[in-house]
Amino acid sequence: MVPTSYLREQAEKCRRLARDVSDATTRARLEMLASEYQAQADFQDSHAPGELRRTASSVD
């Protein structure tokens, strides 16, 4: 399983890139990728077993 901190970092990178790009198609794709990374991190947080959730939260 990919750490949620990594997924959230990738989401933020995509958001930053989307703000700086002028091409609308590229911007939309980057924003979609950011949403996907964020959704995966949120899913992992909400579906991790109790011990794993506590460990992942303390690392984030």
Give the gist of this structure:
This protein has 60 residues and is an all-alpha fold. It contains three helices and no strands.
Largest sheet composition: none
Number of domains: 1
Question: Which regions are unreliable across 5 or more consecutive residues at pLDDT < 50?
Answer: none
- Give the percentage of residues in beta strands: under 5%
Spell the H/E element sequence: HHH
Measure the end-to-end span.
Answer: 15 Å
User: Quick check: average pLDDT?
Assistant: 87
Helix percentage: over 70%
C-alpha geometry: elongated
Instruction: Say how many strands there are.
Output: 0
**What structural class do the secondary elements suggest?**
mainly alpha
Quaternary assembly: single chain
Separate helix tally: 3
Radius of gyration: 13 Å
Which characteristics define this entry?
3 helices; mainly alpha; 60 residues
What does this 3D model show about the protein?
- The mean pLDDT is 87.
- Helix content is 85%, strand content 0%.
- The chain has 60 residues and is mainly α.
- It has one domain (4-59).
